[in-house]
Amino acid sequence: MSIFGLPLSVTARAGTNIALVKYWGKRDATLNLPATGSLSLTLANFGSETTVRFAPDAESPDGGDRITLDGTPAPPPFAERVSRFLDLIRHDARVGLPAEVATHNSVPTAAGLASSAAGFAALALAAARAAGMNLAPSELSALARRGSGSAARSIFGGFVEMAAGTQRNGSDACAQELLPAGAWDVRLVVAIASDGPKAIASSEAMELTAKTSPYYAGWVQAVPQDLVAARAAVLAQDLAGLGRVAERSAMRMHACAMAADPPILYWNAATLAAMDTVRRLRSAGTQAFFTIDAGPHVKVLCATRDAVLVEPALAATPGVLRTLVLAPGPGAEVVREERR
Ligand code: PMV
Fold it and tell me: What is the CATH number of domain 186-326?
């Protein structure tokens, strides 16, 4: 803000995260409150960098915020989602100005992995700072959650647990760090299984699952035990223990979605083949465990030293287009602040 003359321009960076205990269902859609907790791993060099500046001259020709994505004007649905999120900050910080927002994604284009998690975590941090708000990490996490449920976790690095919370206003529905990025030498190997857009957006799919899947109640009821087991495995750095929970959490989430009406199926043939590769690796003695999000890609957790076995095995799997080897990374951070 312009308390000292020129408006403050803030650039923040955040890595995406992959859930090992999945979030799938909301207890409040307006505040974006999850029905259950979740647990994830934040990734390095795979996310968003966003610059925000609130100023009278930031107004776009149509009278709204000026929003760019990778250097060009953002598509309307993206820009509208960002502007709605900025309205929350304008309201809380009592700022009545338009914003200039420039977002750059380091998620490889067409990887089909572009996640809103990193985007809203970086946006929450940059916009809150640019609006003069000084928020604690847990408050930033609750704010990022309003943009996307998984974004609450990308405020923190390494292994992160998100609480469902019990407060009506969502103040305790925020994440916290369980184990920092450098503490445990693991990798996430991603098998890209398609270049197309996802079958159905996660918010819409969660709503349909909650409304129509007969398995939804069972899913919600089972997550707390998975969280207890996953948290203990992370703290003990027990890869097999964490991997077992991660696979069953992903399978239960997808089973629950498949039982919706109409059914939601994110997998393709390459998804099944990659799951089979992981099982074969394990039978041959390599500790590798998969998880799958709202798309066909298979993400495999393993020890860093085993990534040299896991990556070529997935790359050689029929239908797998490409692979990526990702490391744990830090939480959201401010990389630049200037008055202009
Ligand atoms: O944050 P959203 O609304 O995009 O939902 C994320 C849903 C999953 O990625 C499938 C699971 C998760 O916990 O990240």
Answer: 3.30.70.890
Q: How far is the CA of 23 from the centre of ligand 1 (A)?
A: 6
Contact 117, 16 (CB under 8 A): yes
- Whether ligand 1 lies within 6 angstroms of the CB of 146 is answered as no
Label residue 28 exposed, middle or buried (CB < 10 Å: 0-12, 13-18, 19+): middle
Q: What is the spatial distance between Cα 2 and Cα 93, in angstroms, rounded to a whole number?
A: 13
Q: Which residue, judged by its Cα, is nearest atom 9 of ligand 1?
A: 293
The beta-strand segments (E) located in the chain are 8-21, 26-28, 33-34, 38-54, 66-69, 72-73, 99-105, 159-162, 175-179, 186-192, 288-291, 298-303, 322-326, 333-339
Ligand 1: centre distance to CA 3 (Å): 38
User: Distance between CA 43 and CA 330 in Å, rounded?
Assistant: 7
| 202 close to ligand 1 (CB < 6 Angstrom) | yes
Question: Closest by alpha carbon to 210, among 20, 38, 37, 36?
Answer: 36
pLDDT in tens, 66-96: 999 999 999 999 999 999 999 999 999 999 9
Indicate the domain borders of the chain: 2-183, 186-326
Give tens-digit pLDDT for 224-270. 999 999 999 999 999 999 999 999 999 999 999 999 999 999 999 99
Centre of ligand 1 to C-alpha 18, Å, is 8
Other CB atoms within 10 Å distance of the CB of residue 132? 15
What is the CA(324)–ligand 1 centre distance, in A? 20
- Is any atom of ligand 1 closer than 6 Å to the C-beta of 203? yes
Report the C-alpha gap between 294 and 115 in whole angstroms: 10
22 lines ligand 1 (CB under 6 A): yes
State pTM to two decimals.
0.96
Does the Cβ of 296 fall within 6 Å of ligand 1? no
Q: Which CATH number fits domain 2-183: 3.40.710.10, 3.30.230.10, 3.30.450.20, 3.40.50.150?
A: 3.30.230.10
